[in-house]
């Protein structure tokens, strides 16, 4: 049961909940945008714009389910449960027919179009129509799975309302209603029936995955995305290592060089602070794992380039050449981070940071102007860039390129 059904302002509540869903769902999509592209590259061999849009819709819809059925959360005070209207669960199936009939008794038939309880029933149906559509076409599930999962999700929502979010509140602040469960399930059923008609344009997961191993052109966007992934992986891994090290030092009761107290974790993230040597070690280890270790194995491509199915063309280059190529890209970023952590207060660190940023920026800018979109690091190391799948031999048994080893 939504808050509007509990006596709130219907139009105002629906608009407010819709705004919350757009905000939370949109934010979730932004945060998950890069992981979504990574997953699609690995699962389908390339991104699917239609399914990226679908992911955004799934995020907004998931947030809508929460906002319309759980929010706003009540502010509690002593004795607040006793002041709430009766929240005894409504367990009589189709009880809404009696309520709507009583409300419309003696009035014109078209009064149902503005009746609060009738609109609430319609809303409960419409709320789960997207569920059936999404499960059938976006997640490629069968009709029965789409309907059954809608039933289970609705049942979970009603149980959550009945238990006051599983004991978070000492009493139910929403009315659990069996009619909501029935109407939600009906909505999922209608959505599952309509899915092939409304979402026919959505490519299926199996169809996209069938072409996963087919080589594709090396585009500048693909090269850029691999470079962005390298930088993101380096920073995330570095700060995870730094935080884990700081937490270990703190829990063990040791003191790092200089001064470290209970704010050790945040202190290590401040360049030039007492924890700078530990921070520098974190950046060095992250650089080794993200840039240099991959250069020693397989094609020698960085992790980001491997994710987007890119790698050096031709025979495998000597180890020193692969390490040189890693140093021209990720090594420069690693060196900048390490020097900043150790010498943040030095007068020469500012110009050095500017130089590193300019070189990294130039690497991005030159990608579309370089031969085969290979970029600065590949050009300076004398290496061509290719789709990693184009260098594999076809699998005679399957009639398609074999799975890349990297």
Explain what you see:
This protein has 406 residues and is an all-alpha fold. It folds into two domains: 4-72 and 86-209, no CATH class; 220-401, no CATH class. 61% of the residues lie in helices and 2% in strands. The protein is built from 15 helices and four strands. The protein has helices at 10-44, 49-69, 95-104, 116-138, 143-162, 164-167, 178-198, 205-209, 220-252, 264-268, 276-295, 303-307, 319-342, 349-365, 375-380, and strands at residues 310-312, 385-387, 394-395, 400-401. The strands form two sheets. It has a two-stranded antiparallel sheet. Strand 3 and strand 4 (400-401) form a beta hairpin. Helix 5 packs antiparallel against helix 7 (178-198). The radius of gyration is 29 Å and the shape is elongated. Mean pLDDT is 84; it is low at 256-265 and 393-406.
């Amino acid at each position: 049961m939504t808050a509007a059904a509990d006596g709130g302002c219907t139009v105002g509540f629906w608009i407010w909940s819709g705004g919350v869903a757009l905000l939370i769902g949109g934010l979730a999509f932004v945060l998950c945008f890069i992981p979504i592209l990574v997953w699609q590259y690995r699962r389908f061999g390339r991104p699917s714009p239609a399914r990226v849009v679908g992911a955004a819709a799934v995020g907004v819809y998931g947030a809508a389910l929460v906002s319309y059925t759980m929010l706003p959360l009540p502010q509690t005070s002593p004795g607040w449960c006793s002041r709430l209207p009766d929240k005894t669960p409504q367990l009589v199936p189709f009880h809404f027919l009696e309520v709507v009939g009583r409300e419309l008794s003696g009035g014109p038939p078209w009064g149902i179009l503005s009746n609060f309880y009738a609109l609430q029933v319609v809303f409960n149906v419409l709320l789960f129509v997207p569920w059936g559509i999404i499960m059938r076409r976006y997640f490629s599930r069968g009709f029965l799975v789409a309907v059954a999962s809608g039933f289970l999700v609705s049942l979970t929502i009603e149980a959550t309302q009945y238990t006051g979010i599983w004991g978070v509140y000492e009493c139910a602040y929403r009315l659990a209603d069996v009619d909501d469960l029935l109407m939600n399930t009906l909505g999922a059923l209608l959505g599952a029936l309509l899915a092939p008609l409304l979402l026919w344009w959505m490519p299926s997961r199996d169809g996209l995955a069938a072409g996963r191993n087919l080589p594709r052109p090396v585009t500048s966007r693909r090269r850029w995305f691999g470079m962005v992934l390298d930088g993101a992986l380096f920073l995330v891994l570095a700060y995870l290592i730094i935080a884990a090290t700081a937490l270990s030092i703190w829990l063990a009761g040791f003191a790092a060089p200089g001064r470290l107290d209970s704010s050790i974790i945040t202190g290590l993230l401040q360049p030039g602070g007492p924890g700078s040597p530990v921070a520098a070690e974190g950046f060095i280890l992250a650089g080794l794992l993200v840039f240099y270790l991959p250069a020693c194995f397989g094609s020698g491509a960085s992790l980001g380039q491997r994710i987007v199915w890119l790698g050096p063309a031709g025979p495998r280059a000597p180890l020193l050449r692969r390490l040189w190529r890693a140093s021209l890209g990720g090594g420069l970023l690693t060196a900048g981070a390490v020097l900043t952590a150790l010498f943040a207060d030095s007068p020469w660190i500012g110009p050095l940071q500017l130089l590193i940023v300019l070189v990294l920026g130039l690497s991005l800018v030159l990608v579309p102007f370089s031969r085969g979109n290979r970029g600065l690091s590949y050009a300076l190391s004398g290496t061509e860039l290719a789709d990693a799948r184009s260098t594999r031999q076809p699998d005679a048994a399957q009639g398609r390129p074999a799975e890349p080893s990297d």
